[in-house]
Each structure stands twice: as structure tokens, then as C-alpha cells.
Amino acid sequence: MRLLRPAALLSAMLLTIMNTLSTPLTAQEATVTPFKIAISDAQLTDLQSRLTRTRLPDQIDGSSWEYGTDKAVLADLLAYWRDDYDWRAQEAALNRFDQSLVQVDGRALHTIHQRSTNPEAIPLLLVHGWPGSFAEFHKLIGPLTDPEAHGGNAKDSYHVIAPSLPGFAFSEAPSTPGYGSERIALVLAELMQTLGYERYAIAGGDWGAVINSHHANHFPERLIGLHSNMILAAPPADEAQRLQVSDAEAALREARIAYMQGELAYQQIQGSKPQSLGYGLNDSPAGLAAWILEKFHGWTDMPQGADGDVWAHFSKDEILTNISLYWFTESITSSMRIYYENRTTPQSKPTGYIDVPTGVALFPAEIYITPRAWAEAAYDIRHWTQLERGGHFAALEQTETYLGELNAFFSPLR
Question: pLDDT tens across 382-391, in order?
């Protein structure tokens, strides 16, 4: 079998690993192969060459982010990527975590599987979204697996499982249609069984939140609890419950809906023609960086427009490591297909009431805001926090707050 995509840019190590897998394995024959990231020197040289030959478009005088990614901010990031960014240092930092390629659903799924030394630790599946990656959780893994070493309490210990979604980063891209969020939830449930976990906790935002809801809908008996920092629920059928929305909730929800009216074009193209967009983003590191950087700028808790300084919330290394994972693995096109698949693939099991203990961390700059009464009609809400600061990429932007929310929710469920 072949991992990822046709890949002139696959690392020698990755090819060596995959050459040992002669045929696809069934779920019953699933295997776990240790994995280390090893991007080749040729890939680094190719990237350097492309960055050197970048051709940026014009921009309206006096504009900033109104039309899309600000040219000056992007040019500065590209110069840093070309001249100062140290991929090898970032690669080594990611390789400090235990990683594997796990055969699930007939394809290789990349995952961090970092076990705690605490025998009382509980398994925690962390699920990322788009345009994120497993690297979003890099600041959380140490405090989750070894809280005492990071000023925490040993009772808040977890075994962390942080996979790359199918078609993202080092996980093999599906070659057939149908890999929407529900199908991916089934894949991740199989992953957890393959790794030996019968009961576990799950958490995530963005697509991770959607996938985890399907996970809970299919396998409520397996879950200790479900935590979400992007809870989604339709208005309840019961009118009294539907109208049980505070003035503050209504104002925040309406403000975010109004703001997101100018942020949804990406969903339309990725949900209808991801392949066409993928040609440009897969070929141009500047285009890829512009597409992803815009989302980190637009979905973070800060003033928008000229006053929105993305570097006050993320380091250039953090953003470029995330972008580089898409670039080196040529996974931007396959990652975007989740929007198309989710729109076109019928759901196999209708979503009913999620009878799993559920915790919610509601950050004010989240892209969707669901009132608590609506969430309570759809989930067994046990913990709800309306936070004062933070946006869509909570694990990276508000790491300490997010960690505290995970511990506050899961602690009584252990």
C-alpha cells in the first residue's frame, strides 16, 4: 500500500516504514508501527527555492485584512520562513512525543500516543480540526501526561492520544469518497480499540468537536466524558427551552453570526470545489501560508483589521510549524475535502440526545456560539464555563485556561 499521496516529497524514513507493509490490514490484524518525523533535505531545499521565488499580488492602498491576508504581515512571515525558521528544531521538538502509524480502516493513521507514568491516568483522545493539526496540542501534552512536572496535581494525569485526521499531515489520505465527520469518528473509535482502550475521555474543537459528537452518538458506553470548546446544537423543538437565552448569550451569538458573514467563503469553496483550490495551495508555500494565516488572524480573540496583531497570540514558529506540516506532507487538498464529504455524505445514524457527561468551555471569539439551553437539550451538560478571553484555537492561544477547563470537567468523572 502507499501512504499519503504520490509524494516526491515523502521522507526516506516514511517510505522505509511503509515498504514493510505489503498489504492493507483489517481491523482485526491492525498493527502499530513506531514513527518519527524525518523530512528530507531535498524537501527543505525545494521549499527554500519556492520561497525565494515568491511572487506576491498587489494590495489596495491603506487596506489591511479587509480583503484577506495582509500583504505586509504575510511578506514578513515568508521572509522569516525563508531566512530564520528552523524546521529541524521544530521537528526535533515534535519527535519528543511518542508517535505511531496505526493501521485503521485499511490505512495508516498517524498519532501521538504519550502515556503517563501515573497508573491512575485516564486515556484522553484530543481531536484537532482545520486548518489545525496535532501540533496544536504541543503545549498541552506535557502538563496532561506529567502534571506534577508542570506545577499541577498528579490526580490530573492522562494518557494522551492525539491523531492526525485522515488526509491530514502524516495520516494516509482516503482514496474513496465518504470520509465526513461521522466516518472519521468511527475510524477514531477503532483507533482507540486498537491501542487497547475500552473506556476513555474525548476532547476537541472545530472539526474535532463535530467528530467527537458523532463518536459519542455511536459509542456512549465507551466514553468517560466529552469536552468541547465549540459546542454545536440546533434550536430545541420545545419553544420554552428555545427561548431560554439570556441577553448576554443572545448578544454574543448575534455578534459572532454577524462577524462570520465575512468569514465563510472558505467553507463554500472547500465544501464544493476543494480540488481546484488545492492545486494552487499545494504548489505555492506563499499561497498556503496566506490561506492558513488568515484563519488564525480572523478566529483569534483580538481586534480585527489593522489593530489585530496575530503575533500577540501565537509565535511565528507555532504558525509555521502548522503550515509546514501541511506543506511537507502535501495534505492541504485532502484535508479540505472533509468539508465536501461532510456536505455530500448522508449520516448513517441520526444524532439523538448525547447521553454522555459533557463539558463546555465557551470562548468569546469562537466561530459559533450555542446558548446553554440549546446545548442542554442535546447533551448531558455537566460543566459549562463562559470564558472572558480566547478564540477558536484555544489549545494554542489559551493553553493554561484550556488545560484548567479539561481538568475541572474530567476530575469528578475519574
Answer: 999 999 999 9
Convert the pLDDT of each residue in 311-358 to its tens digit.
999 999 999 999 999 999 999 999 999 999 999 999 999 999 999 999
Give domain status of residue 10, yes or no.
no
CATH code: domain of residue 361: 3.40.50.1820
pTM flag (> 0.90): yes
Domain that holds residue 78: 22-413
> Are 313 and 390 spatial neighbours (Cβ–Cβ below 8 Å)?
no
Among the listed residues 179, 339, 379, 402, the single catalytic one is 339
Residue 255 lies in a domain: yes
- 339 classed as catalytic: yes
Angstrom distance (rounded) from CA 295 to CA 136: 14
Whether 206 is catalytic is: yes
Catalytically annotated residue among 105, 146, 156, 206:
206
Taking the C-alpha atoms of residue 147 and residue 208, their distance in angstroms, rounded to an integer, is 24
Q: How far is CA 261 from the centre of its chain?
A: 22
Specify the number of domains making up the chain.
1
Is residue 358 assigned to a domain?
Answer: yes
- Cell numbers that stand for 185 in this block: 469518528
Indicate which residue of 110, 113, 215, 392 is catalytic: 392
* Residue 15 covered by a domain: no
